[in-house]
Write a structure and sequence with these properties.
binds tryptophan, 76% helix, globular
Length: 462
């Protein structure tokens, strides 16, 4: 079967822009605004940011192009796409495992993503009720600590968010959210700019910028490098089939490379602006950059509490953050849902319910890891920390590695050229080189050095 006769049973985006919006909606989320600032803070700032940016450019962008391309060529759930394409290229059916590991990673990530999105729901209400008007850093921290100590509240918000996600997924990605994203993403961007302007006048703007952009390599650990690389995958939604499944709804005539570049730029800009808005507030108030997952929830309310119109802007900000999380969460479960529809003959609705219940149950582990199970640790990590580490720092980079290997080595040049178009041969060759050599080696090197093996190897050789 030639790729042109293949079409997705799940539908197609109505235009090129809808794909860009949906994929940007998937990429821009809690990863940019919640996670990026706190891992930068925990890993010492500038050097971490530099490694992250390098990973985005040298690994993230080429892998994104590859993942979109696989999806569009296969036009099915990631599992079946890998099945069809490996057969077409005369390769081992084991490549399907890539799809399976993606489905598992999607479940694991969504289970905790939903709990954090639940924090944002709570903050919409706290903001709107004026809890933060003119508060001190201490009071803001108390609100956060009280939330984490309350399993019932966390469960309620987690439940609501899972339901909201599944309602959209059940209707199909195109019905509804496609339109919401078009309005809400630009609005989120405007609000970030307002925060940035506030940060510029906070008195510690330069200190914030210096922290973000002056690399101090002594502050960076081997594990920090792994976290930076893992986050490059996480923030771009790569390595688990989310972008692949979105690519499967893409029209054949649109340029994969150009759209991917736009998505990567948008995602990176949002993360950097969030960082530039948050760190000045951290320093102006004498807060701890390494405060951990509570960082945004302990800094931004403080800023909104002091700002004129802060009640309004603050409420709006957390609403928009919630929508950003929503347009990301649906992509985490879409690969599993499409597979159930294709292979288990379920309706979309039934598949969404099944997936929703499974993720909800797993998410309860994360809810409890902040309170009742706070002391239950494996490898010195709580349930939440373990899930986050396993998915973002192991499963996604491995998924990305195998995507790069499949497209770089297992797929014929003809197939790739056919899907990508032959107009810009130089760019094509550059991309192919990155996928064949640079991305796989970089992932391997980062894995090895993070467990300390690289240093030992170098010692042995010299
Ligand atoms: N990229 C999203 C964020 O930054 C999260 C996300 C959505 C994701 N889909 C994904 C992460 C798929 C990994 C894989 O918030």
């Amino acid at each position: 079967m030639s790729e042109n006769s293949r079409s997705s049973i799940h539908g197609q985006w109505s235009s090129r822009w809808v794909f860009v919006l949906a994929a940007t909606g998937s990429a821009v989320g809690l990863g940019n605004i919640w996670k990026f600032p706190y891992i930068v803070g925990e890993n010492g700032g500038g050097a971490f940011v530099l490694v992250y940016l390098l990973c985005i450019a040298a690994i993230g962008l080429p892998v994104m192009i590859a993942e979109v391309m696989l999806g569009r060529r296969g036009r099915q759930s990631p599992i079946n796409t890998m099945k069809v394409l490996s057969k077409e290229e005369g390769r081992s059916p084991l490549w399907q495992l890539l799809g399976w590991s993606g489905v598992v990673a999607g479940f694991l990530i969504l289970s905790y993503y939903s709990v954090i999105a639940g924090w944002a729901i709570n903050y919409v209400l706290e903001m709107a009720s004026g809890s933060f008007s003119g508060t001190s850093a201490g009071q803001v921290k108390t609100v956060f600590d009280d939330l984490l100590a309350d399993p019932l509240k966390l469960t309620l918000w987690h439940t609501l968010f899972i339901i909201a996600t599944m309602v959209v997924v059940a209707r199909g990605v195109r019905g509804g959210l496609e339109k919401a994203v078009m309005l809400l993403m630009p609005a989120l961007f405007v609000l970030l700019i307002i925060l940035l302007i506030y940060a510029m006048n906070s008195g510690a703007f330069m200190q914030g910028l210096a922290f973000l952009f002056t690399p101090d390599f002594s502050a960076l650990t081997g594990k920090g490098v792994l976290i930076a690389m893992g986050h490059a995958f996480f923030t771009l939604s790569l390595g688990m089939g989310a972008i692949m499944v979105y690519g499967s709804y893409m029209r054949s005539e649109d340029s994969i490379a150009r759209t991917s570049i736009m998505i990567v730029i948008a995602d990176t800009v949002v993360a950097l602006i969030a960082g530039m808005a948050i760190f000045p507030i951290v320093f102006a108030n004498g807060l701890e950059p390494g405060a951990g997952p509570g960082l945004v929830f302990q800094t931004l309310p403080l800023a909104f509490g002091q700002m004129t119109g802060g009640l309004f802007f603050g409420t709006l900000f957390f609403i928009l953050l919630l929508f950003a999380a929503w347009s990301s969460s649906i992509s985490l479960i879409e690969p599993a849902v499409t597979w159930l529809v294709e292979n288990r003959n379920m309706t979309r609705r039934m598949a969404s319910i099944v997936c929703g219940i499974a993720t909800w149950v797993l998410g309860m582990g994360t809810v409890l890891s902040f309170n009742l199970w706070a002391e239950v640790k494996l490898f010195d990590m709580t349930f939440f920390e373990l899930l986050d580490f396993l998915t973002a720092n192991i499963m996604l980079p491995l998924g990305g590695l195998f995507i790069a290997l499949f497209v770089g080595w297992a797929m014929s040049r003809e197939s790739k050229l056919h899907e990508m178009g032959t107009k810009h041969l130089l760019a094509f060759n550059g991309w192919n080189f990155l996928l064949k050599y640079v991305a796989p080696l970089a992932v391997l090197v980062v894995f090895l050095q993070s467990i300390g093996l690289l240093e030992k190897l170098i010692e042995k050789l010299s």
